[in-house]
Amino acid sequence: MLKRFGALSATFILVGCQSTNFGYSMLDVAPEDSQLLRHPNWGEPQLQVIEERTETRIVIGQPRPTHALSQLQSLEHGLARRGWHYQILSGQYLMIHLTEGIHFKTNSSEISEPSRRWLLSLAEYLSTQPEVEIVINGHTDDSGRNRYNDGLSERRAQMVKQILMQGKMPITRLFTRAFGEYLPSCSNQTNSGRTCNRRVDLVLLVPQR
User: Fold this and answer.
1) Rounded mean pLDDT of the chain?
2) Which segments of the protein form a coiled coil according to its record (predicted)?
3) What domains appear along the chain, each with residue ranges and CATH number?
């Protein structure tokens, strides 16, 4: 399990339950331990956002290895064909943030049946993409104590991991992180915002070589 460490520097614009994914770099949620993932160095790219129908593409003007671009195109095609919304973050490494978050009731790590079915469907598809790794980021709202929220976000991430493994995803391709209340996606000042923040986000890592 890859845990949050130290102070997390992030800038957020929190309005209602609007997503704030572009208030911070998704690179902030990449694993920090280079021994646990094949992509040890994570930079901070300058991002250009291009809106499209089923995705938000973030592009960096630097050449990509042919294999990485082919892998990315394959993933894009598969995600779009299934109607799954996503964001592509491109810097030193390519990442796909799935915007279909898994949400939870207060103080719960139980996953709803619709979310469970979606995760199993995702695992079935990603089992055909053997080089892609998944970072599972657990979060909470701010209604509990810090230590409790840390543990709760970890349990939520682990529950998602277990379901992906049930869908035949190898454990060696799954990495969890627990952020507690420290990376909200929405404002915690409203009930809808707190509901938005009780979540697990998934990020797909595309190898570049």
Assistant:
1) 76
2) none
3) 66-206 (3.30.1330.60)
Q: Cα–Cα distance between 50 and 71 in angstroms, integer?
A: 20
Do the Cβ atoms of 101 and 90 come closer than 8 Å?
Answer: no
What is the pTM (predicted TM-score) of this model? Answer: 0.73
Q: List, for residues 172-194, the tens digit of each pLDDT value.
A: 999 999 999 999 999 999 999 99
E-assigned strand segments in the chain: 2-3, 48-51, 55-59, 86-90, 94-103, 133-138, 174-178, 199-206
Tokens 């943030």 found at: 97
The span from the CA of 109 to the CA of 107, in Å, is: 7
CA 138-139-144 angle, 5° bins: 130
Q: Which amino acid is at 193?
A: G
The pLDDT, as a whole number, for residue 70 is 79
Go through 103-126 and write b for each residue having 16 or more CB atoms within 10 A of its CB, e for each that does not: ebeeeebebeeebbebbbebbebb
